[in-house]
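Hi team,

Filling in the usual template for the complex we talked about on Friday. All components are listed, including any nucleic acid strands or ligand strings, so the model treats them as one assembly.

SUBMITTER: L.P.
PURPOSE: interface mapping
COMPONENTS: two
RESIDUES: 1031
SEQUENCES:
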Amino acid sequence: MNWLWWRRIFALTQKELLQFSRDLILVVATIYFFTGEVYIAGKGVSLELVKAPIGYMDHDQSLASREWLNKLRPPYFDVKGQITEQSTALKLLDSSQLLGVIDIPPNFQRDLLNGRPTEIGFQLDGSNVVLGNLANSYTGLANAYFNQEWMLKQMKVTPAQALEVPRVDVRQMILFNPEGNNAWFMSISEMMTVMTMLSLFLTAAIVVKEKERGTIEQLSIAPLTPLQILLPKILAVELILLCGIALSIFVVLLPVFKVPFQGSFFLFFLVSAVYVYAVSGLGLFIATISKNLAQVMIISILLLMPIILLSGAFTPPEAMPEWEQALIWLSPLYYYINMGYGIILKGSGLEIIWQNLLALFALGTVLFLFGIRQFKKQFGA
Amino acid sequence: MDFAVQANQVCKRYRKKTAIEDISVDVRTGEIYGLIGPDGAGKSSLMQCISGVLTYDSGEIHVFGQCIDSEKTAEKIKHRIGFMPQGLGLNLYPDLSIEENIDFFANLRGVSAELLTQRKEMLLSVAKLTSFKTRAMKNLSGGMKQKLGLICTLIHQPELIILDEPTTGVDPISRRDFWEMLNRLVMEEGMTALVSTAYMDEASRFHRLSVMHQGKVLEQGSADEIVSKSPGWVVEIETTQPDQVLATLRTQFEIVEQLGQMVRLVAFGQDKNTIESILKNLLNSEELQWHFLPIGLEEFFIQRLKNHSATAEKQLQKQPDLISKSHAKNNTADTSALIKADKLVRRFGNFTAADQVSFEVRPGEIFGLLGANGAGKSTVIKMLTGILPPSEGAGFVANQNMAHSGMAIKESIGYMSQAFSLYLDLTVLENIKLFGRIYGLTGQKLKERIDWVIKIGHLQSVQNETAGSLPMGKRQRLALGCALIHQPKVLFLDEPTSGVDPIGRAEFWRILVRLASDLGVAILITTHYMLEAEHCHRLALMQAGKIVAYDTPYALKQSLKQRKGQVLSFKVTHPYRALSCLEKAGYQDISLFGNRLQLFSKEVKDVSNNVINILKNNQIEVKDTMVLQPSLEDVFVDKIETALAKHELS
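RESULT (copied from the run log):
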């Protein structure tokens, strides 16, 4: 690999970048993915219960029942009002106008005063599992508050005296994201998903475009090895995506979401570069088996799903079935997320992530060599 | 007279670009009418307007008397029309078999089962496709696909068929086959055909035609009528010293070019005797042989456009200076072959794509590799350029063995493929620069070579335009320039001029001839244009992976002349009837070219008198008789038919 070798690589990389810059739609889409998409994910997707629409059927109409309902507080709940008929309740649940309906039985207050345990009905729309679970646990919490207050009231204990009663208080210390800020988590993981998607798709698209137009023929007849033909494409994708991720970090993550970037920027970009290398190897493979852009799209989506699902971005590995856990190491995104969160939120250094980095590099090299081999087979160079 | 199509001053614009301007065409019922012209002449747009697929901006079109001005009116005559769009078998379904494709089109057109069976059988047998009925369309050769396309267009017995470039990208044999099938069907079914083509030499196939260029009609009438507007002759002179003859003739004639070992002279406005006497004065008639040919549409077209636009003339007269002082002529003391194929074999599974292929190309030689699509030309080129390893045999390119010096070979060859394989979204300059850098040029050297490429390709005015916005001719010159950027000693060209107009092709060949003669470059080229094959010093004709003929164009034509004689061409009043009369009288292998019948004969006089008599007895008048030399296309067809016959015997 002499000077000439690198000069050729340089000329071809420059060509790829030039071609990318001429494709206005691609440029605009890439910029949008790294800014708009990341912003929407950070802002829009929330894992908290906000203004859940709730209705109630109060058959008791007592002080106790009103007090219980009073525990459903904003901003978590939005109590819409009284429903008289069960059929109306069902209709409202069916049409998703309400998330849940509280049913307070008659004699609620009397039973409580007589020291008899009593029950409240809660009909809940569980079709959205996350919201349903959240509503359920928040309602449970509201009920606990009510019970505690009721009990103290029965014991004629004033709130001032209550403080003297010994009780356990959990002092949480949430590390790394003390406020449990969802925007941080969501925007970072969206940024990484965008990286995955684009390194897969851009690489495959660049290669398949040359195949479609027949320009690859001209290159394979020039004194270039397959490595020399393919490496510039990956280098170009690297440069484009590293610029993209810089855009994401310095335009969205830091100024908008105030993500506390704990680790070294350099290390994060290095990790990102290795990641693009790994995924673009897979992109090469897609390009060799596809005949046109439409096929590239379909196969990219096909491969993207397991990569994201296996990565642990949305399901922690521990919660996956065993066979799925065994496949996690195949998803390059798994390593990237481990290292990415580590560097950004925990400030991890190379001494902590080196194993992950090495594994990712090894996986990438296997994919890249596989892609080149397929290419050689196809063009017999 | 009945008209199938009457188009009157039709205009069609696409945003800024004018596709057709003020075009008037009348097609009589029962004739084969041609639209002839290079890419972008407006042929497709006109055909689409006539078949009611495309709306037009002004003018009038009547088809069978019905005015086509809206979808509704077009619908009324659609069942009487068959339309075959451009592109090899693009309207067919690749995964369906021949029969399934036909059935599909029949159902689409609501053809009754009875009629379908009967027509299918008849059409398949005319197309000689009956034995391939169950083969999937994607596995057919180009010529077969085209014939299947025609069958599907004809299945509902249309009265008018509109065929958009049915012969583009198809080799001469399949083209001849296709024309014979069309002739027969038009004759037997009494229908009308409107056919477009980019091949000027197909002009004689039409009864009447319009020559189109840049959205306008240049000339209308029969091929003979059109050409007779600028009367003149083409003279072909055989010589061993083309350079000298060329120089001598240039003093007297404007259009003289060298075609391999032949000098070709085009003289407009002079009669045969004048030319003959000038030639006798200039040349030593004892040593040299020459013969006269009538002017073809191709020469006419170039001449017509020269008067038409000053730029075209300027372009043709400017002789680029290929040799800059920095790289003077390679004194070809070393005349060993630069390309040498030695019994190359390539198999794909059971299929042998190239079988024992051997030939040599020396420095300064232009070598033509001809053959039908799928005959194995591309496979041979791929092996020699090092992208496909041969199964057997050896190849040497630029004195390197391709078995182990692939990279060294790639450094020393230039390659240009039939599809434009440069980057359409990069500018002319960026493309040239990219390839220069790929071949390792830098600094001053790179700059020099870029200037050279721009100069020989006449690309000065479009340097900063994207390659995608260039017209075909300029694109091809750019591609040639990029292939030449590193001064290769060997050049491979795979159908470099398909779709380029005659002026563009003439310009392209001018560069090639000088590359070979001045720089000693060895050139291997494939083409479907027979006139281009004449430019080659030597030709190899491939059929089913084998080379079936390998010689100079002159020798090939001579040997055919010795075996089969000369070509007799009769212009007659009722060509179809004349054809069947002569066939009844026992003459075989008669080809129909519009109003002309052609056949081979060794005893020219006797046969000619005999034919005229037979026709006279049938009340058919022979308007004129010509004796022509066998063309390369005749050679091509003859060799392949012989090879096929041998194959059937064994």
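MY TAKE: The mean pLDDT of chain A is 84. Strands of chain A lie at 52-58, 77-82, 100-104, 121-124.

Thanks, L.
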